[in-house]
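Here is one such tokenized protein:
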Amino acid sequence: MSLNEIMQSIAKAETAAGRAPGSVKLIAVSKMQPDERVEAVLKAGHRVFGENRVQEAAGKWPGFRERYDGIELHIIGPLQTNKTRQAMELAQAIHSLDRPKLANTMARLAQETGACPDLFIQVNTGEEPQKAGILPAETDAFVAECRALDLPVRGLMCIPPVEEEPTLHFALLAKLAERNGLKGLSMGMSGDYEKAIRQGATHVRVGSAIFGARDSHM
């Protein structure tokens, strides 16, 4: 699919869900994509991108920012504490706030620099032991903890288990967000973003459907 086709299908899903046009932000996930593919999407006018790894983002985006105005970068992958400063300098939003230690580091750096990206708390809706994220039962307490640190928590993020129906996980995330007065819902990827939009997603993370298959050798 082309970027244009994805945008059209998002607009259609918004209408079908009775939502305002433009209420869903498309994050083009450019991790492990060659520069020429990313540049083609920039040339098409898209400006919101997602990267998994801080190191890759640092190597790629400063150069693009010199040539294109208005780029909004989202870090969507697991964040090591020692990469927090670099992530906060590079990104306008971080979607993987998933533990108290990281929250404390972000709060300290935000005080030191006077700035902090928008933050999404990652919730492990499937309670999968191998996956990062706050457990659903602990989400309310962690949101409160982050707010007490003056962190700009804008919403919640999830990655449903591969083998389960994602709608149940999207609905759970929406319920947790509403309960905590959070407007942002970062959920839905290439295969299920239309379902996520039906459940209230405000940010969808789409990679392969825009760019094609990733180069795993990079």
